[in-house]
Specification:
Length: 156
């Protein structure tokens, strides 16, 4: 199996300020209370319009970026086994990106998707008043996922 696709071919325009109200309905972006901080984050990453079947990440690849699903769903799988799906408003790939470790699964779009992609090094270029709430938000999301996984394991 080859690596994930070159996603640069799917880059689309950064949302305009008029779209910020809809962005704030996405939990990842609701932490930014003013337009200035939201603009900083929105311009710090790239926006992708990916067709169905796009390989966002492959098991075993080093993770350097993470994604926020703005529209659509992504299937997460290990080999041929579906592990679950990530849909609108959810975060994907943050653990590999934050830990600078290999991806633990494949992620493939199940339908046409719009995603926000943030490379982990872009965090170094963001002001502290933006990075701090963003990182707290990411850690909370990750902690909730771990808690859910722990609960599932305890039921086995």
């Amino acid at each position: 199996m080859t690596g994930s696709e070159d996603l640069t071919k799917y880059v689309i325009n950064v949302p305009e300020r008029a779209d910020y109200a809809s962005l704030r309905t996405i939990p990842f972006f609701d932490v930014f209370k003013n337009d200035g901080d939201l603009t900083t984050v929105a311009r710090g990453g790239s926006w992708l319009g990916c067709p169905k079947g796009t390989v966002l990440m492959r098991d075993g690849e080093l993770g350097h970026d993470f994604f926020v699903l703005i529209k659509g769903c992504v299937e997460v799988r290990k080999g041929t086994t579906a592990l679950g799906e990530v849909c609108q408003g959810e975060l994907l790939g943050e653990m590999g990106a934050m830990l600078h470790e290999k991806r633990s699964a494949d992620a493939v779009t199940r339908e046409d998707c719009i995603l926000f992609r943030l490379h982990v090094t872009a965090l170094n270029n963001l002001p502290l008043q933006v990075v701090f709430p963003l990182m707290v938000h990411i850690y909370r999301i990750t902690a909730k996922r771990l808690k859910l996984a722990d609960k599932k394991l305890s039921m086995m």
